[in-house]
Structures are given as structure tokens and as C-alpha cells.
Amino acid sequence: MEKIVRKTLTDQIFDYIQDQIANGNWKRGEKLPSETELAEKLGVSRMSLRAAIQRSNTMGLTETKVGEGTFVKKISMRPFIENLLKSNLLSADNDDINDMRKAAEFRGGKCLSDSMTKGDLRSPITWSCQFGHEFKASPTLVLLGGHWCPECFPMPWNYDEIARGNPFFAQVWYPLHDKDEDNYYDESIFKGFKDM
Ligand SMILES: [Zn+2]
């Protein structure tokens, strides 16, 4: 039998705060709506709201400055990981080639292997990214480790281009960047850099 997890009102408000930050509605450095405004919008008491903000501050997601308000401090990875879990890509029952195809599609690419041993998440299989680069990686490395195309991600870094075709990456990129940016980083950023 499945366990029933009961969430308190404060838990739910806290989840809401995390979601707003994770999906980029509230960006880093931005001020949260006022307590009155938020409490009214969510239909909760200011006391519950305050408790949730307090937790968010403790977790380092937000910061309350006296007389100024509460600001987004950093991105929470938790809702992002929870969304992955919800998509069932990581559950033990979803460990065959069809699930790998879904995982690849979610990243804008393809799973090129025709088959895999159900449940074997350690053996490398073949993938291709949105730009057609082929690479081998185990399902564990891709699904749990968060790795993807080794050609795209090391260099040159055009994260905006990648985010446009890779929804998985977009979830971590867009909370920090606007959709019309075009950041391109090449080898020149290493000028003057010395390996210690
Ligand atoms: Zn690639």
C-alpha cells in the first residue's frame, strides 16, 4: 500500500514558492509580491505565509531584508528533480528502451539504441542530441547524473541555443536567463586561465 503524505498549509505554500522560483516566474534578485498580496492571492493567512517564507529563507532560496521585502536568492533544484520523478523516468518500473526514448525526447534528442536489457541502467547505450551528435552513456548517467551530449556541453557553450531545443536543460537555464538572450562562450574565455 502506498503511503499517504499529508502536507500542511505551510508545506503547500513553501512548494508554491519553490515552484515560482524553479519555473522562472520569480527570478533571482527579484522581489516577491508583498505579504498581503501573496496571502490574498493564495487564500492563506499571513501567519502561514510567514512560516513558509521563513522556511524558504532558512533553505537559502529567499532572503528577507528588513523594511525592503523578500528577494529571490537562488534557484531551487528540488521542484526540478521532483518534476523528473513525477514524469516517472526514474522509477523502477520505467527502465526499458521506451523510457529511454522518452528521456531523450525530453532533452530534444533521440535514443539510438534499438533495445536494452530491462532494468540494466548501468550499461552504456547510444544517444543523439538535438544537433545530431552521437554519444554513449548509461541510463544512470543521463537520468540520474543529469549528463547529456559531451560535444554540446563542454564547448563552445551556447546554452541559449541548447535551451531552445532541450526542455530538460531549459528548466535550469531559464530561471537565470531571458528567452531572447544569446550567450555564446568559446575557448577565448580561457585566456589567462592557468591550470593549478
Ligand atoms: Zn550535441
Task: Outline the secondary-structure elements.
Elements: H1 9-22, H2 35-42, H3 46-58, E1 62-65, E2 69-72, H4 78-86, H5 97-106, E3 110-111, E4 125-128, E5 134-137, H6 139-144, H7 159-165, H8 167-173
Antiparallel strand pairs: 1-2, 3-4, 4-5
Helix pairs in contact: 1-3, 7-8
This protein binds zinc ion.
Any overview of this molecule?
By secondary structure, the protein is mainly alpha-helical. It folds into 2 domains: 9-72, Winged helix-like DNA-binding domain superfamily/Winged helix DNA-binding domain (Arc Repressor Mutant, subunit A, Orthogonal Bundle), CATH 1.10.10.10; 79-173, no CATH class. It is built from 8 helices and 5 strands. The chain has helices spanning 9-22, 35-42, 46-58, 78-86, 97-106, 139-144, 159-165, 167-173; strands at 62-65, 69-72, 110-111, 125-128, 134-137. The protein has a 3-stranded antiparallel sheet. Strands 1-2 form a two-stranded antiparallel sheet. α1 (9-22) packs across α3. The radius of gyration is 20 Å and the shape is elongated. Bound molecules: zinc ion. Zinc ion binds at residues 129, 131, 133, 149, 151-152. Residues 129, 131, 133, 149, 151-152 line the site of zinc ion (ZN).
Biggest β-sheet: strands ordered side by side in the sheet: 3-4-5
Q: SSE order in H/E notation?
A: HHHEEHHEEEHHH
Q: Report the principal-axis shape.
A: elongated
Number of helices: 8
By DSSP, the count of extended strands is 5
Write out the distinct hetero groups bound to the structure: zinc ion
What is the C-alpha radius of gyration, as a whole number of Å? Answer: 20 Å
Indicate the low-confidence ranges by residue numbers.
none
- Report helical residue fraction: 25-40%
Structural class: mainly alpha
The chain-level mean pLDDT equals 78
Number of self-contained structural domains: 2
As an assembly, this protein is single chain
DSSP strand (E) fraction?
5-15%
How would a crystallographer describe the biggest sheet? 3 strands, antiparallel
For the record, give the distance between the C-alpha atoms at the N and C termini, rounded to a whole number: 54 Å
